[in-house]
Amino acid sequence: MTEDVTVHEELLTIGAFAARARLSAKALRLYDRLGLLAPAHVDEVTGYRYYRADQAERARLVALLRQLDMPLARIAEVVGAEGGEGAERLAAYWADVEARVAGQRTLAAYLRGRLSGRSSEMYEQFVIETVDVPAQVVITESRHTLADELPAWIGASLERLEAAARGCGGVTGAPFVIYYSEVSMESDGPAESCVPVADEAAARAWAAGHGRPWETKVRVEPAARLAYTRITKAQVAHPQILAAFEAVEHWMAGEGLEMAGPCREIYFADWEAAGAEDPVCDVAFPVRP
Known about the structure:
Elements: E1 12-13, H1 14-21, H2 25-33, E2 41-42, E3 49-51, H3 56-66, H4 72-80, H5 85-115, H6 119-122, E4 128-133, E5 136-143, H7 150-165, E6 176-179, E7 191-196, H8 200-209, E8 215-221, E9 224-232, H9 233-236, H10 241-255, E10 258-259, E11 264-267, E12 279-288
Antiparallel strand pairs: 1-3, 2-3, 4-9, 5-7, 5-8, 6-7, 6-11, 9-12, 10-12, 11-12
Helix pairs in contact: 1-3, 3-4, 4-5
């Protein structure tokens, strides 16, 4: 639907408007089709598009945002925002881009080492340590998920579990996610989000009394010795995080340690407040001599 115009208002043909906006007519037709910039008027008989001169600024803004590889839905949010909100939305998008690029930089360095036969040298960027953790009562949520859906599910599931933990004596340790099988674009796990809680009886009552569309459990996670490495927010992204998992496995083999359970990610930092280079997560494997 186009805006109402009077017959007295001066409108520009798509060709004249394209020249003023320094864009092609093809681009303007695309923006119209995507709902980013509708003509001020479309002739019902000929189908010709007409634009107001003051639409040129929005057209140029859309074109510039597309040069940032911004998804179309986010472009619509930025150009449709009022006041300074558009700048805030752009800043949030660019922070995500920088975090992704930082992670990709790490991945590229790792892959260069692998392709040149120097994988073991690339593992040296990761500091591997061991720690003994006690048995913990945990409330959990499990799901089969592919890699592209994993971050959103982890965030949502841990939020649900941490909310439930308030009625189970509170959270007593860092939340973690266990991978019982590979999660990639071809393999869907499953994965299990876990939140340690203080009151096992209350947790079991919660699990029994709430119907949910996802699989939830209460169980005791046994005491274990973990071999782990600490990684940044940028390194958590898939597939960059695979280098961290492989580094721990490589170290375990060198130390003669045997894997004693599925790998996991332990989240100890405020994800939203953390920057791309801030440590947020431990990649860990239970081990035995």
